[in-house]
Structures are given as C-alpha cells and as structure tokens.
Amino acid sequence: MEKRIWLITGISSGLGKALAERIMDSGDFVLGTFRKKNQVSEFNEANKGRGFAYRLDITDHLGIENMVNNIKNEFERIDVLVNNAGVGFIGAIEESSMEETRQVFEANFFGALKMTQEVLPIMREQKAGHIVQISSHGGLKAFAGFGIYNASKFALEGFSEALAQEVEPLNIKVILVEPGPFRTEFASSKLPEAKRMIPDYDSTAGAFRNKLKGVNGKQEGDPEKGAQAIYNLVNSENPSLRLPLGTTALMTIGMKLQSVKADLEENRNIAENAVFR
C-alpha cells in the first residue's frame, strides 16, 4: 500500500502524541502541529523521513489556511485528517464568562471546523479520505461543571454528523472518537477553570471540579491502546461513525441513550398530538 499522509493537530502529548507515534511506526507519514517552536524543531530532527511538524495555534484561521496550502504544494495529498487539538474547561454555566466560553469554542469547534473546511477540497479532488474528530463521551453526555466544554463538543458532533452524510458519496469517511477519561495531561493543573466561583454551585460544579482534579494520573484510558483503536478503525473497510473509548465512555453514553429513550416514551402521546389533523 502506498504510504499515507496523516495530518494530526496537537501531537505534543496524550492521545495525539500516541497516535502520531503509532502511525509513524506503521510506515505511514505524519504531519503534526505544535504550538511551541522548540517542539517543532525537536520533532523534525528526531523523525526525519517519518514525519514533519508545523507550528500552529488551532485558533489562527489564517495560519491554518497557510499550512494546508503548504502541505498541498509539498506533499500533494492528505489521506487522513485528525482534529485532535483542543482545550478543556471547568466551570458552572453561570460562572463562565463570555470571553472564557469563546476561547473554548475557538479551539474545540471553530478550529476543527476551519481545519476540516480547508482539507475537504483536497479530499474531494482525491475522491478519498478520512476525517477523524477527537470528541469526547462529553460530546454526548453533559456533566455539571463541564457545560461549556460539553457544548463545544456537542457542536463538533453536530457538524460532523451532518458532514458524514454530505461526503459519503465522495468516498470520504468521518469518524467521531469519544474517549472517556484517559491518562493524559487533560486533567492536570493546566486545565482552564472559570475565574468566577459561586458558592451555590459547590455541590454540583464544584464537586465535579474536585473529582476531575482528583483523578489526574489515575484515569483508566491508555493513550497507546486508544491510538491503536483509532488506527484500526481508519484501516477498516466500513468504519462506524462513532468510536467510544473506555468503559466509562460506554457507561455514560449508555446512560444518555436510556435517558433520551425514557423521555421519548414518556412524552410520546404529547408529541403525537402536537400536529395538524
């Protein structure tokens, strides 16, 4: 098989780093992004012939355009796009400022959307490709104290679900990866929090904040195994739209489906009567 080119955003740590290493070990070529200049040079020095890195802030839309144009000119194709770069955020809805909320959406939604839009013309011309969106089990099930992050991932899931239908006739596949808690730096001290804290939410959003910090370094998810699962699904003949990862993801997504089904059945008669007869 011809060596494929994977474009992965955010490969400095966690799932992105593990996936980049898995792909290079397989013989495919990785184009990855980092936010820091020294990380770019270190990666390029260590991975000659296996990968190449760019410096990119996922919220810089002009930077995305320039990078994708450079990739098209130099490498001519992109076989797999993995929108991995993003940010977390803890805070009750009332605690979250508009500025903080926009920062989350710029990274998790608009950055992924812009990257997808820039790569799609290349894949349409190829009549082939995979777009892998690193979402979250929190892209389907919301948690008190995580609402802004949930909203950004819900938005990612929404446009990706529609996109999958739009590009299916063009031989382009879309995959939504929905990990539960993974042993990455996501829940470290670097995790952004709402600057405002309201005592009335201590038992809900506050409890979630403390729980999330308490599991840092103890999460069940193995990034290397997650990377292998993503690699295997991309290589499958007919990949599913969604890929939950971890037992927690299975549990929380299952809870959401049961809740939706229960509400649907409870209100079935009301729904059926809200139409013209």
Question: What can you see in these coordinates?
Answer:
The chain is globular. The mean pLDDT is 94. With 277 residues, it is an alpha/beta fold. It starts with a strand and ends with a helix. It has a 7-stranded parallel sheet, with helices on both faces. 49% of the residues lie in helices and 13% in strands. Helix 1 crosses helix 7, helix 3 runs parallel beside helix 4 (98-126) and helix 4 runs parallel beside helix 5 (147-167). The protein contains 9 helices and 7 strands, in the order E-H-E-H-E-H-E-H-E-H-E-H-H-E-H-H.
Key words describing this protein structure:
globular, 277 residues, single chain, 9 helices, seven-stranded parallel sheet, 49% helix
Strand content: 5-15%
Total number of β-strand segments?
7
Distance between the termini: 59 Å
Work out the helicity level.
Answer: 40-55%
Assembly status: single chain
Which sequence of strands runs across the widest sheet? 3-2-1-4-5-6-7
Protein structure class: alpha/beta
Condensed summary:
The protein has helices at residues 14-26, 37-46, 61-75, 98-126, 147-167, 205-214, 223-234, 247-266, 268-273; strands at 5-8, 29-34, 51-55, 80-83, 129-134, 172-179, 242-245. With 277 residues, the protein is of the alpha/beta class.
Layout of strands and helices, then pairs:
Blueprint lengths: L4 E4 L5 H13 L2 E6 L2 H10 L4 E5 L5 H15 L4 E4 L14 H29 L2 E6 L12 H21 L4 E8 L25 H10 L8 H12 L7 E4 L1 H20 L1 H6 L4
Parallel strand pairs: 1-2, 1-4, 2-3, 4-5, 5-6, 6-7
